[in-house]
Write a structure and sequence with these properties.
The structure holds two protein chains of two kinds. Chain A is α/β, with parallel strands linked by helices. Chain A is 47% helix and 10% strand. Chain A folds into two domains: 118 residues, Glutathione S-transferase Yfyf (Class Pi), Chain A, domain 2 (Up-down Bundle), CATH 1.20.1050.140; 147 residues, Rossmann fold, CATH 3.40.50.11810. In chain A, helix 3 crosses helix 5. The longest helix of chain A has 17 residues. Chain B folds into two domains: 91 residues, no CATH class; 70 residues, no CATH class. Chain B contains eleven helices and no strands. The two termini of chain B are 36 Å apart. Classes of the chains: A alpha/beta, B mainly alpha. Chains A and B meet through helix 2, helix 3, helix 5, helix 10 and helix 11 of A and helix 6, helix 7, helix 8, helix 9 and helix 10 of B.
Chain lengths: 286, 188
């Protein structure tokens, strides 16, 4: 199977482990990923708070590159990019003037033939049996909660992926590979997103709530599928402990790192040595 | 803390401009406060999302554009998802931010638009985001040089921040920015 791949700007920096572990898992599952030609930033929050036309043109420019290569499906691991891509398609489908303006901006008549997918989607749809077959390691000792963050499933009118208040796709994949997945209340509560850079106090308050509920239900770790969620939960956990006088020690895994562990991949191959909250103690249990 | 919304100036053109941008009718709102109940950052806002919608309907342009709320909204889309009247509340926040920027209204929280400005400047320069560059430009604007310094150093050590930017398709990106500017100017 071959997919067009849009890594997103964080793939070589803050979200490096997501890219590493996703690629490691795909290679084991015989999924080929082909980088989008000349891909550029999707504009993220900064574009949609500045100009609607800009915020739609940047993602559509990238999807046009996929179209020009005659590929039908693009995988977008970064949730912010994924959400912007889907929103942009929705906008041009419902606004013919915007569609005209975007064509003029990118100098290309976009055909809207490309399906935008996230990694959970490609694994969940028809791959669960193959995933189960590749499991080499017993992960049943690890108690994990799955954190989806806010915009992976929201708003449902254009994201059209999983349940918008109570998604289950990550839970099902991790249960399938033998992880002891726990239920909890904070699956889709916002972590504060990019407020981390300007108003980190808000992020500390929101992530404290998330850690508290994860701890209350007895989780050893949190699984995520978004690089911004990962950064907010992992890099600021120590600050949360100091500010709220807590002793959280919750390693934050990309769900692809957990899949890689089950498949027998090494710690370095999955970028598990790049976390702020060490995964060492937990990994000794498996 | 939320303040009271009382009508002092009415600007119906403002309501129309916001509606045009989100393509929905804000008058559908019946003030159920579901958006406010689910908002993760409401504690730090000066007006609740429900009040902002009400103020838009009353044409209270100054109140909306000068509020902290429009900048603090994290665009988590919880309000838009849950609105029983299907109003795109997060979209209204975007529309208000765009109008505020266009009309050069001094933002109630300067750092957040400064971050967006820095981010877009970097994309225009390199085609892709470059975290160190964004942070550098942001610090020049906010003058908060020591904020998150130790976090940044630890990230550099772990290889989670790159010293050099990634450069891609810069000429195309520059063209996109300038064409967007031109089309938007022509429409005004």
């Amino acid at each position: 199977m071959i997919y067009s791949y849009f890594p997103g700007c964080t793939y070589h920096s803050t979200g490096k482990e997501y890219d590493m572990s996703f690629k490691a898992v795909c290679s084991i599952l015989d999924i080929e990923l082909k980088d989008v030609n000349n891909w550029i930033c999707c504009g993220s929050s900064s574009a949609h708070t500045t100009s609607k036309l800009l915020s739609v043109s940047l993602p559509i420019q990238n999807l046009s590159e996929v179209e020009k290569e005659n590929l039908n499906e693009v995988v977008v691991p970064c949730v912010s990019c994924y959400s912007r891509f889907k929103k942009s398609i929705y906008e041009i489908e419902n606004d013919s003037q915007l569609m005209k303006d975007v064509s003029e901006v990118i100098d290309y008549q976009f055909q809207n033939k490309v399906k935008v997918l996230n990694p959970l989607e490609i694994f969940k749809n028809g791959m669960l049996e193959e995933i189960r077959d590749k499991v080499k390691k017993d992960l049943s000792e690890i108690k994990m909660v799955c954190y989806y963050g806010c915009i992976l499933t929201r708003p449902p009118k254009f994201m059209k992926f999983d349940g918008c208040e109570y998604p289950v796709s990550m839970d099902e994949i991790l249960k399938d590979i033998g992880v002891n997945v726990l239920d909890w209340s904070y699956k889709t509560d916002c972590c504060g997103m990019s407020l981390s850079l300007t108003n980190s106090d808000i992020v500390l308050r929101l992530t404290n709530n998330i850690f508290e509920n994860a701890t209350d239900v007895g989780a050893d770790a949190i699984a995520v599928s978004c690089s911004l969620c990962h950064a907010n939960l992992d890099t600021r956990q120590e600050e949360v402990n100091k500010l709220y006088n807590k002793k959280y020690n919750l390693p934050i895994f990309y769900f692809t790192q957990v899949m890689g562990l089950a498949f027998g991949c090494g710690v370095k191959e999955l970028g598990l040595d790049k976390h702020f909250v060490s995964t060492d103690k937990l990994l000794k249990r498996i | 803390m939320e303040k009271n919304v009382s009508q002092n100036t009415v600007n119906n053109d403002f309501m129309k401009a916001v509606q045009l941008d989100i393509g929905e009718n804000v008058n559908l709102c019946y003030q159920c406060k579901k958006c406010t109940a689910g908002c993760p950052v409401v504690h730090d806002m000066d007006y609740t999302p429900t009040q902002i919608i009400h103020a838009v309907r009353l044409g209270m342009k100054d109140l909306v554009l000068k509020s902290k709320t429009i900048w603090l909204c994290a665009s988590c889309e919880t309000c838009t998802t849950r609105c029983p009247q299907d109003i795109d509340i997060a979209g209204i926040m975007d529309a208000a931010r765009i109008i505020a920027k266009r009309e050069k209204v001094t933002p109630a929280i300067k750092d957040i638009p400064a971050l967006h400005k820095s981010f877009l400047q970097i994309i225009k320069m390199f085609g892709r985001s470059y975290e160190l560059g964004v942070m550098g430009l942001l610090k020049l604007r906010t003058k908060e040089f020591s904020k998150d310094m130790s976090l940044g150093i630890k990230m550099l050590k772990l290889g989670k921040l790159k010293i050099l930017p990634q450069i891609s398709n810069v000429s195309k990106v520059k063209k996109i920015f300038s064409k967007v500017n031109k089309i938007e100017k022509d429409k005004r």
